[in-house]
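Thread: "does anyone have the structure for this chain?"

Original post by V.I.:
We have the sequence but no experimental structure in hand. Need at least a predicted one for the grant figures.
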Amino acid sequence: MTDKPQPSINTLGITSGKTVRLIGATPEIHDALAPFTEGATVTTLASESADVGIIVVQDDADLRERLFTELEGLMGATHVWILTQSDTGPDLATIKAAADLVSWRSGAPESLGLDLTAVRLSRS
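Reply from O.Q.:
Generated one for you, tokens below.
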């Protein structure tokens, strides 16, 4: 069995001391992200400010709903990521179109291994 190469812990812009707001993650995804958030404070509370926002989406409808309801609370974050299952979640064109609707831009996808793809969003 060949191990997949693991991406750099800094792939998501998370470094020690950062606050990460994790939105919509199942317990399995939360556990899978543990190496990326080591040394950071992880919160799911909308009332807490965050340096990095990670929005986990399952499908197209989930993507649209979370972008409309969650992005405003992440305006102070230096990095905002959409995370999706590589084989079953929204594709890059769908993420780009949804981000455009809320006046954000999407970047190129980053494979995190773990069957997860991350797409960075930035304010337009």
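V.I.: this helps a lot. Residues 59 and 89 are 5 Å apart (CA to CA).
O.Q.: and The helical segments are 27-32, 34-37, 60-70, 92-101.
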